[in-house]
Write a structure and sequence with these properties.
Elements lengths: L2 H19 L3 H7 L5 E3 L6 H11 L4 E7 L3 H7 L5 H6 L1 H9 L1 H5 L3 H22 L1 H8 L5 E8 L4 E9 L5 E3 L5 E3 L5
Parallel strand pairs: 1-2, 2-3
Antiparallel strand pairs: 3-4, 4-5, 5-6
């Protein structure tokens, strides 16, 4: 069975399990969009997606999710490239420069993992500073921007930070506690 066949087989199995657990699940989904969570993509359409989700769908949770083992992070730590990839890595390299002192103390996988985390935290700040989110907060929206990281080695998500209703960004420690972290402007 090829990869796409396995993907569609897994999709059918998931849909079947969902209907078994909740026979009206797809009926409700087809009736209209009411998502609870938006995972912000990192492509050029992100701002449009963000605006539609916040202003039209009133999504209360926006998620910026990175992943350990990220090839982009590895490439950003390597020698500078050129072309489209170099432009795509520009933000990661900016995050690397912003946190160079902290990253200089780390080596290998620890350095890569921390850059993944720092990039997520910085992108949460960027989303929170966007006009779309600021305007929504000003209008009283209770939107929360979350920063998560996915570990491909065990399939688990870990919360890193969150920012809500214009408040200070909170970093989330491994034990689940939170502490204010400075918000770069």
């Amino acid at each position: 069975m090829c990869h796409t066949d396995r993907f569609f087989a897994a999709n059918r199995a998931w849909a079947w399990r969902l209907v078994e657990a909740d026979p009206r699940a797809f009926e409700r989904m087809a009736a209209g969009q009411a998502p609870e969570v938006l995972m912000v993509p990192s492509d050029l359409n992100a701002l449009s997606v963000l605006q539609y989700a916040v202003e039209v769908l009133m999504v209360p949770h926006i998620v910026v999710c990175g992943h350990y083992g990220c090839g982009g992070v590895q490439a950003s730590l390597a020698a500078p490239g050129h072309g489209a990839v170099a432009r795509w890595l520009r933000r990661l390299r900016q995050v690397r420069r912003l946190h160079r002192a902290e990253l200089a103390k780390l080596r290998g996988a620890a350095r890569e993992r921390r850059l993944v985390e720092l990039n997520v935290i910085e992108q949460v700040r960027n989303v929170a500073r966007s006009a779309v989110v600021r305007d929504a907060w000003e209008a009283g929206a209770r939107t929360t921007v979350h920063g998560w990281v996915y570990d491909v080695s065990d399939g688990l998500l870990t919360p890193l930070c969150r920012q809500s209703h214009g408040g200070a960004s909170l970093e989330i420690a491994p034990d689940g506690t939170t502490a204010s972290c400075s918000s770069a402007t």
